[in-house]
Specification:
Elements lengths: L3 H10 L17 E10 L4 E10 L7 E7 L6 E4 L5 E4 L5 E5 L30 E9 L3 E10 L26 E8 L18 E3 L7 E2 L3 E7 L6 E10 L2 E2 L5 E4 L2 E6 L10 E12 L6 E12 L1
Parallel strand pairs: 11-18
Antiparallel strand pairs: 1-2, 2-7, 3-6, 3-8, 4-7, 5-6, 8-9, 10-12, 12-16, 13-14, 13-17, 15-16, 17-18
Length: about 300
């Protein structure tokens, strides 16, 4: 992926209207972004595959789109030919742009007057393009997209009529918007509520006591929620009386994940299930060692 700074400059330049012409806006486009998601039970990762469409009634090329993220962990970003991807500094936005120089074809007799040219990889009216994807540890949830049309860059030193200056602060809100799913970070954590002093040793990101879930059931366990010193090697998990500690793989330094399916012979059963977990750590503000024990009862469908 390009650095955010380089990509942002390329994208922002496309927002500036051409000199001596009516102000053009990247939201002057009729477009859509669609997604297909899949889940890999081996890696515990969701794959998001996006396809963009520039509807026939559009009059401009579709050359960029952006998706706000509610999950910071984005992996294995893929772009189609002629497109670049980038992540914002705060990891709250992923975007793609048909901005690569090798996609620019100079017309006969072209004179460089400081203005840009569109990429041959931008999507014309009536066209579609797939090949945009990434992976995330977080599940899909309703979200939005920002879609932008290619617009020309002015020659340097252009003065804009009063009131028609480009809105440099509105990126990407000055683009066409729509709805599309993206990864959701679940900020509502279940701590267990048994011993407040140690409840932060181990918490559940997507499982609640008494909850009901469809199979496969994804169990995400987070450690050291308040910066506690936790001995992760002491972690144990037991599902319906059977040790399943080894089923939990490391997703990132403080997250482990296991996936259980309610199939014949599986430890997960349709109906009532009991998951017991434990981990050792140091009680905050002391040197005392303690164990965070949690037991959840949930239903699998």
């Amino acid at each position: 992926m390009k650095s955010f700074l380089v990509a942002w400059v390329l994208l922002f330049m496309a927002f500036v209207p051409q000199a001596m012409a009516a102000v053009e806006s990247p939201n002057d486009i009729s477009a859509n972004v669609a997604v297909v998601t899949s889940f890999d039970t081996q890696t515990g990762l969701y794959t998001y595959r996006y396809t963009i469409t520039n509807y026939g009634e559009s009059t401009k090329l579709f050359n960029q789109f952006h998706i706000p993220l509610r999950a910071a962990s984005i992996l294995n970003v893929v772009s189609p030919e002629g497109w670049d991807s980038y992540l914002s500094f705060d990891n709250k936005l992923i975007g793609w742009c048909a901005c690569k120089e090798e996609g620019i074809v100079l017309p006969p007799g072209y004179v460089d007057d400081g203005r840009n040219l569109p990429s041959k990889f931008a999507v014309p009216p009536g066209g579609t393009l797939s090949g945009f994807s990434f992976q995330s540890a977080y599940p899909p949830a309703p979200g939005i997209f920002y879609a932008g049309a290619w617009v020309p860059i002015p020659a340097e030193g252009v003065d804009f009529p009063e009131g028609e200056e480009p809105d440099r602060q509105s990126f990407p809100m000055n683009m066409r918007t729509g709805t599309v799913a993206g990864p959701l970070k679940d900020d509502t954590l279940y701590l267990g509520g048994r011993r407040p002093a140690v409840d932060g040793f181990l918490v559940f990101a997507n499982l609640r006591d008494g909850g009901s879930y469809g199979s496969p059931v994804v169990v995400d366990i987070l450690f050291s929620q308040n910066g506690e010193n936790v001995v992760q090697s002491s972690f144990k998990a037991v599902l319906n009386g059977t040790d399943v500690t080894s089923r939990f793989s490391v997703v990132d330094p403080n997250r482990r994940r296991a996936v259980f399916e309610a199939v014949p012979g599986s430890l997960l059963v349709v109906g009532k299930n009991i998951l017991a977990t434990s981990v050792d750590g140091t009680v905050p503000g002391s040197t005392r060692q303690a164990t965070d024990n949690d037991k959840l009862t949930f239903l699998a469908q």
